[in-house]
């Protein structure tokens, strides 16, 4: 009900704005979560990426079929030894504060990603040892060794270029009023309520921007998001519950779009981050193995998602050439009990934190019921999504149900999460053999070497289970029928170029 009331107020405000602004093209978007900090250097939430797509252009972007294309860049060239990358930049690009986007700004942003305290981009760019300005529109990235994922890395937040003038005010000030070079400029944010962006009139590709204003409204309950869409208080919603798909399709005022994701849904285990890691599941891999064996992934997907999602136990999706072709492991209660007995933990307690959306709480409840049959006492704790991430990074949780939206290069799905010191490695898992294999995959240019290295990572992490992988989702959006030009992307990010509202 709170979401409906909030959206009703937003609709009233919109009506007032339209009465003063005539035929303004304004879009109201329902998000599943409220983003964390609006700073691409520090942010780590998927919904943050959704907002950044309208706010912050990147050096490169992807196409719906996963080709990497220039955005703020116009082209690039690798050195013969693959240890430096020269990038040519687009001329005439302005930040939303009117300052120029040039090579100096690119160097500033990349250096900031690498050095700002709390940066979650640092490990993504860890192969980069220096950034050199070679001209007003030319920048060179220098590496100590070849770094295969680099272009893919620069097609996401690590490639977002911020205004040096705005960033010099400090990280807190920048997050309160972010300034980038994207199609929409920041207007306001009311936490847990709304984020408002307006069209930037001096955007370099302004001919493709048809909308005047976008308002993002976080509404965790998928049923409430859908009710708001059906009532007309929202124009588009993300992550429609698969159980609501038939309801949406039967509504003549609505249309849907869907595509398979690049990432995964899993459970991140705290294995070495403070006192909470001393739990049974954090301190003994046999308990983690038993927990994984207690889960029937196929049944989980069927019960919660009507079979719309893909059960799996891997960090890459089936569409990736790095995915290992093997059956989903069967549930094995007898083996799970034997592992718990060997660990001296026949009835371990697991405190499992779950984002406070109804669907993910149902995921938690199904896992709780399944694991109980093996002897686990799973205690569920609901927590707002961004708050859960913050608590996880501080080592305040034992285990967290956590999704990753995925990246075009497999490095983006694994390195930051399981490398020793990885920026997103909340559980502080560390295995030197995993690190060595990850480094091999980063520095190799041929597919076979990278595939063998990632298979080695999977072999080790399948046993030690710092993350228990559960399934891959299908992105599913619903929108009013008068929304035209929307294109689904497998990274799940909403891009509003060429989108109109009739």
What does the model show?
It is built from 17 helices and 21 strands. The protein is of the alpha+beta class and about 500 residues long. It folds into 3 domains: about 160 residues, Periplasmic binding protein-like II (D-Maltodextrin-Binding Protein, domain 2), CATH 3.40.190.10; about 110 residues, Dipeptide-binding Protein, Domain 1 (Dipeptide-binding Protein, domain 1), CATH 3.90.76; about 210 residues, Dipeptide-binding Protein, Domain 3 (Dipeptide-binding Protein, domain 3, Roll). The strands form 5 sheets. The chain has a 7-stranded mixed beta sheet with strand order 8-9-10-1-11-19-12, sandwiched between helices. The longest helix is centred in the N-terminal third of the chain and has 20 residues. The radius of gyration is 23 Å and the shape is globular.
The CATH class assignment of the largest domain is Alpha Beta
Number of strands: 21
User: What low-confidence regions span 5 or more consecutive residues with pLDDT below 50?
Assistant: 1-22
Calculate Rg over CA atoms.
23 Å
- Individual helix count: 17
CATH topology of the largest domain: Dipeptide-binding Protein, domain 3
Could you estimate the helical fraction of the residues in percent?
25-40%
Silhouette: globular
Quickly give the CATH architecture of the largest domain: Roll
Mean pLDDT value: 94
Provide the structure class. Answer: alpha+beta
User: In what range is the share of β-strand residues?
Assistant: 15-25%
Termini separation: 28 Å
Largest beta sheet: strand ordering: 8-9-10-1-11-19-12
Main sheet? Answer: 7 strands, mixed
Domain module count: 3
> What is the H level of CATH, i.e. the homologous superfamily of the largest domain?
Dipeptide-binding Protein, Domain 3
């Amino acid at each position: 009900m709170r979401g409906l009331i909030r959206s009703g107020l937003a609709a009233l405000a919109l009506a007032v704005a339209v009465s003063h602004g005539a035929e303004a093209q304004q879009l109201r978007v329902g998000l599943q979560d409220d983003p964390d900090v609006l700073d691409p250097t520090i942010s780590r939430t998927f919904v943050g990426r959704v907002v950044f797509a309208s706010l912050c252009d990147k050096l490169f972007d992807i196409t719906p079929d996963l080709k990497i294309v220039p955005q703020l860049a116009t082209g690039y060239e690798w050195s013969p030894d693959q240890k430096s990358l020269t990038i040519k930049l687009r001329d005439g690009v302005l930040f939303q504060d009117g300052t120029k986007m040039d090579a100096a700004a690119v160097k500033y942003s990349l250096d900031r990603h690498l050095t700002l305290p709390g940066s979650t981009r640092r490990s993504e760019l860890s192969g980069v040892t220096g950034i050199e300005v070679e001209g007003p529109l030319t920048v060179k990235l220098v590496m100590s060794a070849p770094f295969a994922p680099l272009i893919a890395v620069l097609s996401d937040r690590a490639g977002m270029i911020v205004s040096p003038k705005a960033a010099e005010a400090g990280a807190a000030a920048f997050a309160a009023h972010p300034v980038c070079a994207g199609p929409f400029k920041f207007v306001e944010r009311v936490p847990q309520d709304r984020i408002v962006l307006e069209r930037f009139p001096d955007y370099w590709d302004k001919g493709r921007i048809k909308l005047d204003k976008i308002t993002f409204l976080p509404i965790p309950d998928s049923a409430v998001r859908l009710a708001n869409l059906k009532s007309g208080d929202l124009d588009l919603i993300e992550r429609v519950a698969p159980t609501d798909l038939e309801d949406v399709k039967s509504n003549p005022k609505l249309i849907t779009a869907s595509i398979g994701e690049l990432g995964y849904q899993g459970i991140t285990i705290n294995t070495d981050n403070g006192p909470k890691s001393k739990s049974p599941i954090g301190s003994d891999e046999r308990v983690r193995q038993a927990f994984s064996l207690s889960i029937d992934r196929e049944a989980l997907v069927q019960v919660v998602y009507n079979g719309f999602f893909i059960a799996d136990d891997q960090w890459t999706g089936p569409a990736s050439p790095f995915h290992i072709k093997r059956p989903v492991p069967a549930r094995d209660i007898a083996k799970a009990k034997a592992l718990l007995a060997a660990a001296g933990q026949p009835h371990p307690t697991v405190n499992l934190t779950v984002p406070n959306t109804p669907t993910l709480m149902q995921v938690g409840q199904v896992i709780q019921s399944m694991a109980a049959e093996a002897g686990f006492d799973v205690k569920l704790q609901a927590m707002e999504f961004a708050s859960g991430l913050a608590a996880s990074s501080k080592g305040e949780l034992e285990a967290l149900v956590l999704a990753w939206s995925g990246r075009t290069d497999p490095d983006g799905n694994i390195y930051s999460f399981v490398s020793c010191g990885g920026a997103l490695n909340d559980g502080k898992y560390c295995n030197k053999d995993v690190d060595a294999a990850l480094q091999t995959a980063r520095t190799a240019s041929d597919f076979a070497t990278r595939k063998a290295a990632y298979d080695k990572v999977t072999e080790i992490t399948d046993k030690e289970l710092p993350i228990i992988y559960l399934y891959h989702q299908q992105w599913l959006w619903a929108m009013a029928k008068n929304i035209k030009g929307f294109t689904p992307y497998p990274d799940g990010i909403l891009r509003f170029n060429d989108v109109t509202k009739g």
